[in-house]
Each structure stands twice: as C-alpha cells, then as structure tokens.
Amino acid sequence: MAPYRRKTRLAVASAETIAAAAACLRAGGLVAIPTETVYGLAADATSDMAVAGIYAAKARPAFNPLIAHVLNIETAREHARFGRQAELLARAFWPGPLTLVLPVASTCRVSLLARAGLDTVALRSPSHETARAIIEAAGVPLAAPSANRSGRVSPTTAAHVLADLDGRIDWIVAAGPSLHGLESTIVGCLGAGPTLLRPGAITREAIEAALGAPLASTTPIEATPNAPGRLESHYAPRADLRLDARDAAADEAALDFAGALAPSAAHPRLDLSPSGDLVEAASNLFSHLRALDAADAPVIAVAPIPQRGLGAAINDRLRRAAAPRGK
Ligand code: TXA
Ligand code: MG
Q1: Most-buried pick from 45, 129, 187, 298 (CB within 10 A)?
Q2: What's the whole-number average pLDDT of the chain?
C-alpha cells in the first residue's frame, strides 16, 4: 500500500476518536498522537508491517530504532529487563518524558524492525492523557517517532503534523500544543552505569539527583568504533554479506528479493518480498537476516534491492551490515 495514498482524518481527541484511532492502530494503521514532548507517529510496535509503515510515511532514509510507548512499568516488564537503576528512574519519572533503553526480556513483543534488529529496546510511558488513553485502548505498545517527514523539525501541533504527513497516514488526533516541545531524555541502562544517550525534556541534574550518582555520557560511536562495551548501535550478522548478488553458491545462504536470485542449491533461502513490495521487504529485513545467520553459512548472498522508497533504508542497513568490522 503506497503511504501517500491514504486519506488522513484530523479529529480533536474525544472518547469516539480515541476508540477509532485505537481500532485503526490494532488493524496496522498509522495514527499521529499528541504527547507531552512532541506529536508522535504511532503504529502497533508488535507488528513489523505496521512499523514499516512508519518508515515509509516519514520517508526515513535509515532504520533507526524507535521508542515503544507503554502505559506503565508493569506493562513495560513484559518487554524489557529492569535493573535496580532502571527501576529507580522509572519510579521517579514515569509517566513522563524519560525514555529508558534496556535489555529485551525473553517475552518482548516489540518487533525486530522497531528495535532495528537490536537486543535492546527503548521504552517510555508518556504522561499525556490522550496518549495514555490511546495506548490503553489499543492494548499494544506503540512505536512512535516524532510525527514529521524525515529532515523536518519535530511537530508540536496537529497543524504541523498535517503539513508534513497529510495523505500519508490514517489519523491525526489533535489535543493542543505539546507541553515541552522537546523530545524525551534517553538514558541507557545496559549493564555499566546509566548513560545519557540523548538530552531532552528532563534535565541531567534531575536524573542525577534521582540516581544519587553522576550520569555517564556517550562518546559518539564514530569516534570509537571498536571500543569495548560501547552501546551497540547497529545489528550486525555473524555471517559476511555479499551484496547485489545475481546468484548464490551452494555453501551460501540466500536473501532474495522478488525472486531475483537465480535458482541454486543455496540453503536456507528467504525472500524479503516475493511480490517486490518494499514495505513488506522492510518488515522482513531483520527477522530474515537473523534466521539466515542462525543457519551458520559463512556468507549470505543478497539480491539487489531497488533504491526507491524504503529500498534506500534497506540498502543503507545492508551496507552497514556488510562493512568489515572487528570480529
Ligand atoms: O519525546 C519523544 O521521545 C518522542 C515522542 C513521540 O515520544 N519520540 C521520539 O522518537 O523522539 P524518535 O524516533 O525521534 O527518537 C528515538 C531515539 C532515536 O535517537 C533512537 O536512536 C533512540 O531513540 N533509540 C531507540 N531505541 C534505541 C536502542 N535500542 N538503543 C539506542 N538508542 C535507541
Ligand atoms: Mg525525531
């Protein structure tokens, strides 16, 4: 389904529009919702296909991991493991503009695409009444980046969202301007001490006061590509990737697109989208890569992916996964 052919309905938050928006989300639709930080573009975080729709609507050139929005710490526990410090921070700042990046729980249902293939997950419990009502009625965590086209500023009113995404999403639920007008603060709690990953609406000082300890900051990943213990920012398969392949050798695994690879004994072989649909291909990218990597072939041969639409983001991610790295 082409994202730019949707009819976008704009409605002020009410019991009826919240119920309609939640039903749309459960059916895999795209709904812009108000939060206390900025307006978010929400989709069912448990569905790779719904999440692929977010990237298509925003025309994002890369798959950055997304924040899954939950009601509270109890529902968050299904998806992530809370250590002592994460627990403390959630108790101090949820609901509110704090996002925690945590190790996934074995029961995590947040889709691999929303996590960009990582074994960590970003969770936030928003305080905005309408956002909370929609999460509760949808009954699933909601993946929601800021509701703007890629490269534009984050929207703080429904009118901003409409200007950027009209015709590309299903609903805009309006509830006045966002209170903070600044994204949530992101803190990683992944073993070493808590780390400030993105400054935002809650100050470093407030977080340090709650923790009773200073907060480490990330060194930009580009500056220390192989530093041990750095926050893993990209999913990387163990196997080498051979991109733009026309065929796959018998000892290779094969990642096909629209049946482009010549028939061969390569095994296993998975197709990102037999019909050539790039949104479907995006939704399958990380789960297929993981399944092929698990089969232990030294090399995964990857069919050419067209550069149009979500193909640009798929190719960006494949190139990063194929780049030489310390093993
Ligand atoms: O205030 C906000 O946080 C807004 C509202 C809508 O909730 N959302 C938002 O989402 O700003 P977005 O997608 O624009 O930013 C998400 C940030 C990205 O910088 C991403 O890299 C980071 O969260 N992130 C998500 N999951 C991560 C993970 N597993 N590890 C590291 N960073 C992660
Ligand atoms: Mg953003």
Answers
A1: 45
A2: 92
